[in-house]
Design a protein that fits this description.
globular, 6-stranded parallel beta sheet, Quinone_OxRdtase_PIG3, Rossmann fold, Quinone Oxidoreductase, Chain A, domain 1
């Protein structure tokens, strides 16, 4: 098969489409003929050498895909050859075929094309596990997501609104903010022009928001804490603004704040299967009803993976970027 290979750690130019061996499936895995894969920010970190794949994972990039099942391991009972699915991957999506654990696979939701479904697994599993399973966001609460126009952001706006919470977003252009508004965001903040802490307090009657989903990290940490309501929960999923900082610990105690962080990829096989199951139960009905949709910005052929990475690193996109074999 063909796959995108990282020839050496570096910029987008190090990605090359090469002929490689087909993946071999284990008894608890299935083999998918890839229809499409979606980019994630973690792919760019793996490319430059700062985010190596976990032990036993595919050496190729790609943390989600959609496609058609070509083979099924003997211990897999739910899926059969010919099923159209999407999946959460440890890696390997930037290829014509990929092996994946049977418990990390989802059916294509009604109304979503096989290609566009590639943009759902990573964002759905990330948002559902962090915002709802771990941060316990509930109807009537307020939620702030940074990078509202990103893949994570555009998905979070939709599912959080669907579950009855108020959504605040930050983004860096009026075009992006307008798109977030169209998706259902209640409050749209241009972080280049406004103080998001002041706006969060203003929009909540001085209380602050209940849950924040943050991909920025260090440079936003203290301001995020300042933006939270009593019993507020901050969930960190990225470090685009750095990984090391200082905070005022006396911000935490009086407001009973919780700070958490997590990534999907390092989790155990069993934990990821549980998240996938919860997503199918709680998120897929909203997708099937047309209340939540994958937001696809642009598709590239696998041979132009480098160009796709340049677009992602420019942050000019809104939603997900796909690669198609």
């Amino acid at each position: 098969m063909k796959a995108v290979v990282i020839t050496t750690a570096g910029g987008p130019e190090v990605l090359q489409l090469q002929q490689v061996n087909d993946p071999e499936i284990k008894d608890d895995e299935i083999l998918i003929k890839v229809e499409a894969t979606a980019l994630n920010r973690a792919d760019t970190f793996q490319r430059n050498g700062s985010y190596p794949p976990p032990k036993g994972a595919s050496p190729y990039l790609g943390l989600e895909c959609s496609g058609t099942i070509q083979a099924v391991g003997k211990d897999v009972s739910r899926w059969k050859v010919g099923d159209q699915v999407c999946a959460l991957l440890n890696g390997g999506g930037y290829a014509e075929k990929v092996a994946v654990h049977g418990g990390h696979v989802l059916p294509i939701p009604p109304g979503v094309s096989l290609k566009d479904a590639a943009g759902l697994p990573e964002v759905a599993c990330t948002v559902w596990s962090t915002v709802f399973m771990m941060s316990r966001l509930s109807a009537g609460e307020t939620f702030l997501v940074h990078g509202g126009s990103s893949g994570i952001g555009t998905f979070a706006i939709q599912i959080v609104k669907n579950k009855g919470a108020t959504v605040l977003v930050t983004a860096g252009s009026e075009e992006k903010l307008a798109f977030c508004k169209k998706l259902g965001a209640d409050v749209c903040i241009n972080y280049k022009r406004e103080d998001f802490v002041a706006r969060a307090k203003e929009e909540t009657g001085g209380k602050g928001v209940d849950v924040i989903l943050d991909c920025i990290g260090a440079s936003y940490l203290q301001r995020n804490l300042d933006s939270l309501n009593f019993d507020g929960r901050l969930f960190i999923i990225g470090f685009q603004g750095g990984a090391v900082t200082e905070i005022k610990l006396n911000t935490l105690l009086p407001k009973c704040l919780t700070v958490q962080g997590a990534a999907l990829r390092p989790r155990s096989t069993e934990n990821k299967a549980m998240v996938v199951s919860e997503v199918e139960k709680n998120v897929w009905p909203a997708v099937a009803a047309g209340k939540v949709k994958p937001i696809i910005y642009k598709s590239f052929p696998l041979s132009e993976a480098g160009e796709a990475h340049r677009l992602m690193e420019s942050s000019e996109h809104i939603g997900k970027i796909l690669l198609v074999p």
